[in-house]
Amino acid sequence: MPRRFAYKELVAATNGFADDRRLGEGGYGRVYRGFLSDSVRVVAVKRIFSDVEDSEKIFSNEVKIISRLMHRNLVQFMGWCHEQGELLLVFEYMVNGSLDTHLFGSRRTLTWGVRYKIALGVVRALQYLHEDAVQCVLHRDIKSGNVLLDTDFNTKVSDFGMAKLVDPRLRTQKTKLVGTYGYLAPEYVKEGRASKESDMYGFGVLALEIACGMRTYQDRENNHVPLTNWVWKQYEVGNVLNAADKGLNDDYDVNEMTCLLTVGLWCTLHDHKKRPKAEQVINVLKQGAPLPNLFTDMRA
């Protein structure tokens, strides 16, 4: 069960939040590696910036939501600390860091089998959040930087600072626009309505990044073309495998690659009503259901 940590305990664990303990930094805070004195366990301590707008709201929101969640593909929340003006969250430590460093960083070593397992883990986490949790949770910031990997490269979805509990009577929730450029569904950007479908859009972009080994917003063929548009062009001419990551040197399962690329496009259809639910994606990725024909669901 998550517990309250004393501030001095976390200061000691991180050696005073030393720079050599820093694991990473996001828009709302920094994350440090820590060693708890009462055990041999290594933890990750998230220190939320106090000068960020709504920092207390972000902190309390993450504590409230993730405290009630438990799934093998969600990062384990261990506790919190709110003392001396500090807002600290404690999580299990993920040895292999975040997915983006493996896809786009210097250590591009993920085999195809591991990539496919990671994609399945993310969509299983979304299935739990959307359908199986006590109350539906919209993550609202699905991206490669928020997918952590343990020793065996098992998926652990993290960062619930922007997550939102959904009133079960409502299909969508009108909210302040949050998230990361490149992963945001068009209807969410336009109308500010978060939904399961907008979460699935973020997963679709992530699925394409995993399959293509490219960022959603990087230059391609000397043009600033969104990854979704580029993959669509390959799909439309019947050569979707041309979008597969060249760094894999064709060392991948053709059926699985086709599934993941097609699922990525399916989840990013402009018409949110035509996007699949997480359960449908799982069935396709496990090859227990046929691939959709996206020409019949072409983008509006």
Number of strands: 12
As for the CATH topology of the largest domain, it is Transferase(Phosphotransferase), domain 1
Write out the strand line-up for the largest beta sheet, numbering strands in chain order. Answer: 1-5-6-4-3-2
Anisotropy-based shape: globular
State the CATH architecture of the largest domain.
Answer: Orthogonal Bundle
Structural class: alpha+beta
InterPro entries: Kinase-like_dom_sf, L-type_Lectin-RKs, Prot_kinase_dom, Protein_kinase_ATP_BS, Ser/Thr_kinase_AS
Protein name: L-type lectin-domain containing receptor kinase IX.1
Organism: Glycine soja (Wild soybean)
EC number: 2.7.10.2, 2.7.11.1
Structural overview:
It is a single chain. This protein is α+β, with helices and mostly antiparallel strands. It folds into two domains: 3-92, Phosphorylase Kinase, domain 1 (2-Layer Sandwich); 99-297, Transferase(Phosphotransferase) domain 1 (Transferase(Phosphotransferase), domain 1, Orthogonal Bundle), CATH 1.10.510. 34% of the residues lie in helices and 16% in strands. It is built from nine helices and twelve strands. A six-stranded mixed sheet has the order 1-5-6-4-3-2, with helices on both faces. The chain has a two-stranded antiparallel sheet with strand order 7-10. It has a two-stranded antiparallel sheet with strand order 8-9. A hairpin with a 5-residue loop joins strand 8 (147-149) and strand 9 (155-157). Helix 4 (112-132) packs antiparallel against helix 9 (278-285), helix 6 (196-212) runs antiparallel to helix 8 (254-267) and helix 7 (227-236) crosses helix 8. The termini are far apart. The mean pLDDT is 91.
